[in-house]
Amino acid sequence: MITYIVIGVIVILALWFFTTYNSLVTLRNRVREAWSQIDVQLKRRSSLIPNLVEAVKGYAKHEKGVLEEVTKARTALMGAKNPGEAASANNMLTGALKSLFAVAENYPQLRASENFKQLQEEISDTETKVAASRQFYNTNVLDLNNSLETIPSAWVGQMFGFQKEEFFKASEVEKKDIEVKF
User: Fold this and answer.
1) Cβ–Cβ under 8 Å, residues 45 and 120
2) Which of 105, 103, 76 minimizes the C-alpha distance to 92?
3) Are 70 and 51 in contact (CB under 8 A)?
4) Domains of the chain
5) How far are the Cα atoms of 88, 103, 106, 166 from residue 57, in angstroms, in the given order?
6) Hey, which end of the chain has fewer CB within 10 Å, N or C?
């Protein structure tokens, strides 16, 4: 009888162990998949930037500094290797795009250009998709990190070297209120 109890306990522990390990693997894969969705949207936005810069160049020849900042920020985003670097580069690109759109306000013919309008709409649509992807990613990171910090799954995570992931955070600039003037 005691043998059956010991075997039963071992089987239950083994099932718990495998279930916990598999759930950690699933959570880690969800985080990776969510990150790939952010990456896709950031790359989409990055591919739109050269077209936008070219559209603005023709109208705003003396705004070279703004155009260089946008290009530099885009390059940093494309070279990002992890969520932290991507978040930082994304924040830099967002600021540069705000400056670019502010410059565009000074050129009525540019704002009236169909090409510029379409690019601006596509970038705005992509920004919405990036925000949704960031939220999805951060939710998955939260689930993984919670599992890695709570017992007993933390024990399994430590045994197999699971690491906490970092959140995709907004910069201080992005958190500030936008000033609207009429």
Assistant:
1) no
2) 76
3) no
4) 2-175 (1.20.1440.20)
5) 26, 11, 13, 37
6) C
pTM above 0.85, yes or no: no
Residue with tokens 């083994």: 14
Burial class (CB in 10 A: 0-12, 13-18, 19+), 107: middle
The tens digit of pLDDT for each residue in 66-106 reads: 778 888 888 888 888 888 888 888 888 888 888 888 877 77
Q: Angle of helix 64-78 relative to helix 83-104, nearest 10 degrees?
A: 160
Number of helices followed by number of strands (H, E) in the chain:
7, 0
What is the DSSP secondary-structure string of 75-103? Answer: HHHHT--SHHHHHHHHHHHHHHHHHHHHH
d(CA 53, CA 67): 6
Please give the Cα distance from 143 to 150 (Å, whole number): 11
Residue 5 · residue 139 · CB < 8 Å: no
Structure tokens at 181: 């003037």
CA dist., res. 98 & res. 107, Å (int): 15
What sections of the chain are H helices per DSSP? 2-57, 64-78, 83-104, 108-112, 114-149, 153-159, 172-175
The one-letter code for the residue type at 3 is T
Per-residue pLDDT reduced to its tens digit, 135-166: 999 999 999 999 999 999 999 999 999 999 99
